[in-house]
TrEMBL record:
This is Taurine--pyruvate aminotransferase. Coiled coil: none annotated. Keywords: Aminotransferase, Pyridoxal phosphate, Pyruvate, Transferase. It holds the Pfam family Aminotran_3. Signal peptide: none annotated. Its EC number is 2.6.1.77. It catalyses: taurine + pyruvate = sulfoacetaldehyde + L-alanine. InterPro entries: Aminotrans_3 (IPR005814), Aminotrans_3_PPA_site (IPR049704), PyrdxlP-dep_Trfase (IPR015424), PyrdxlP-dep_Trfase_major (IPR015421), PyrdxlP-dep_Trfase_small (IPR015422). GO terms for molecular function: pyridoxal phosphate binding; taurine-pyruvate aminotransferase activity. It comes from the Bacteria. It comes from Desulfobulbus oralis. Its cofactor is pyridoxal 5'-phosphate. GO terms for cellular component: cytosol. Belongs to the class-III pyridoxal-phosphate-dependent aminotransferase family.
Length: 440
C-alpha cells in the first residue's frame, strides 16, 4: 500500500487510539513490512522480531504466501456464513486440530483469546445450571495469569494493573497463588509441583467445593513473568479437580500451536484437560480466530430434549462464521508440520536458553533465565543473592536499547508492582541459529 511518511504519522497521531498507550507526548512507530523473522518500519529500519508481532502471535513468521493464497481462494468460494451452518475450512481445521489433542473432541470458534475464555466460563456456568442445580458456577484463577480484556475475563485476572479502575467485576471468581518457581515460598524441593498445586485445594475448601465449577490457568504464565510450573504440578491439579468435580481449563492462548515446542504446552505434563482455549498462534495473526476446545463429556452435558429451549449452549459469535480464520489456521498447522517447526522450536529454544544462561556469568543483574521452547524470560534484579527486584525503568531501558540495536524484545506487563522486570523473548518458530545468536 502506498503512503507518505510524514502524512501517515500525522494521521496516526490525529485519529488512532493505540492499545496500552498513554498518548500524551506519544510518538508513533509504524511498521510497513514483515518478511520471515523481520519487520521494517516506515523509516526503512529493519528489526529482528523476537516477540512474534509483539504478543506471541506470528508463530510461522511474516509473508507466508501459502496462507494468503489459501485465504484469498476461500474468500472467493465463501467468505462468511453464520457458524450455525457448516463450512469446509471449519470442518477440516477442526478435524486437524482435534488430531493433535487426544481426549478432546469439539471445537467452538470465535475471534479472540478473551472471547474463547468467556466461552469457557459460560460453559462452566451453564453446566452448573443444567447438572448441579445452579451450584458449581464459580471459577478459580491463578495469580499473575491473564485471560483477556473483557470485564469478565478481567474478573479472572491475576494481574493487578490490568484490573485497576475497571471494576466492579463479575462475581464468582476466586484466586489461588502463582506458579513462580524462582520466588516460591516453598524454596527448592523435590515435591515443589505437588506443594504448589495443593494451594488450589485450600482455596476450593475455603470457598466451598459446591460453589466451584472450573479452574482456569495459563498453562505457562506468559505476560505475568514467563512462569513454567514444576513437574507434577498439573497432575496434582488434575487429581484435585477430579476429587471435587471441577473442570480444568487450560488457557493456551500464548502456549498453543507450538510456542513451547509441543502443539500445546499442557502436553509437557501427564494431564487431560476438560477445556482448552487458544488464539494468537492459531492462525499466526493472518486472520482473527480463537477456539474453545472441549471433551466429548463437556459437549454431551448440553445434549437434551430439543423441546428444552434452555439446555443447549446459547452462545453466538458473529465472526465465528468467518471462513478466513479456519482457512488460515489450517494452512498454519500444515506449515508447522511440513517445516517441522515443533522440532525447530525445541532445538532453538534450548539454544536460546543456553545462550541466555551464559549471559548470567557476565551480568550479575540477571537473576533468573527460564522458559520452554521459544518462550523465554530473563528476570532482571538489583542483586542476584537477595533477588531484590530492579526498578522497572531499567528493564524498560533494556527493551529500548535492544530496539535501538535492531532487536524487538518484550517485558512483562506492569502489573506486579515491583515484579515488572522480566524481559520476554518469543521469536517465531522458524528462528535459525544465527537469529538466536543475534537475539542473545
Ligand atoms: N490469554 C492469554 C494467556 C493472553 O496472553 C491473552 C492476550 O494477551 C489473552 C488470553 C487474551 O487474548 P486476546 O487479546 O486475543 O483477547
Amino acid at each position: 500500500m502506498s503512503f507518505n511518511k510524514e502524512e501517515l504519522i500525522t494521521l496516526d497521531k490525529t485519529h488512532v487510539w493505540h492499545h496500552l498507550t498513554q498518548h500524551k507526548g506519544f510518538e508513533p512507530a509504524i511498521y510497513v513490512k514483515g518478511e520471515g523473522m523481520r519487520v521494517t518500519d516506515i523509516g526503512g529500519k529493519t528489526y529482528l522480531d523476537a516477540v512474534s508481532g509483539g504478543v506471541w502471535t506470528v508463530n510461522v513468521g511474516y509473508g507466508r504466501k501459502e496462507i494468503v493464497d489459501a485465504v484469498a481462494a476461500q474468500m472467493m468460494d465463501l467468505c462468511y456464513f453464520a457458524n450455525g451452518i457448516g463450512n469446509v475450512p471449519t470442518i477440516k481445521f477442526s478435524e486437524k486440530l482435534i488430531a493433535k489433542m487426544p481426549g478432546l473432541s469439539r471445537v467452538y470458534l470465535s475471534n479472540s483469546g478473551s472471547e474463547a475464555n468467556e466461552k469457557a466460563f459460560k460453559i462452566v456456568r451453564q453446566i452448573g445450571q443444567l447438572k448441579h442445580k445452579g451450584k458449581k458456577t464459580g471459577i478459580i484463577y491463578r495469580d499473575r495469569d491473564y485471560h483477556g480484556t473483557t470485564i469478565t475475563a478481567l474478573s479472572a485476572c491475576g494481574q493487578f494493573e490490568r484490573r485497576v479502575q475497571y471494576g466492579p467485576f463479575t462475581p464468582g471468581f476466586h484466586v489461588f497463588p502463582d506458579c513462580d518457581v524462582y520466588r516460591s515460598k516453598f524454596g527448592p524441593c523435590a515435591d515443589l509441583g505437588v506443594k504448589m498445586a495443593k494451594q488450589l485445594e485450600e482455596v476450593i475448601l475455603s470457598v466451598g467445593p459446591d460453589e466451584i465449577g472450573g479452574v482456569i490457568v495459563e498453562t505457562m504464565t506468559a505476560g505475568g513473568g514467563i512462569l513454567v510450573p514444576p513437574e507434577g504440578y498439573y497432575e496434582t491439579m488434575r487429581e484435585i479437580c477430579d476429587k471435587y468435580g471441577i473442570l480444568l481449563i487450560f488457557d493456551e492462548v500464548v502456549c498453543g500451536l507450538g510456542r513451547t515446542g509441543k502443539w500445546f504446552g499442557y502436553q509437557y505434563w501427564n494431564v487431560q484437560p476438560d477445556i482448552v482455549t487458544m488464539a494468537k498462534g492459531v492462525a499466526s495473526g493472518y486472520a482473527a480466530i480463537s477456539c474453545t476446545v472441549t471433551t466429548e463429556k463437556v459437549f454431551q452435558d448440553f445434549l437434551a430434549d430439543p423441546a428444552d429451549h434452555d439446555a443447549y449452549f446459547r452462545d453466538i459469535s458473529t465472526f465465528g462464521g468467518c471462513t478466513a480464520g479456519p482457512t488460515a489456521a489450517l494452512a498454519n498447522m500444515e506449515i508447522i508440520e511440513r517445516e517441522k517447526l515443533l522440532e525447530n522450536c525445541v532445538t532453538m529454544g534450548d539454544y536460546l536458553l543456553e545462550g541466555l544462561k551464559g549471559l548470567m556469568e557476565k551480568h550479575a543483574i540477571i537473576g533468573d533465565v527460564r522458559g520452554r521452547g521459544l518462550f523465554a524470560g530473563i528476570e532482571i534484579v538489583k542483586d542476584r543473592a537477595t533477588k531484590e527486584p530492579i526498578a522497572e525503568a531499567v528493564a524498560n531501558a533494556m527493551v529500548g536499547a535492544a530496539k535501538a540495536n535492531g532487536v524487538l524484545i518484550g517485558k512483562t506487563s506492569r502489573s506486579f508492582r515491583e515484579l515488572n522486570n522480566t524481559l520476554t523473548l518469543c521469536p517465531a518458530l522458524i528462528a535459525t541459529k544465527s537469529d538466536i545468536e543475534e537475539i542473545v
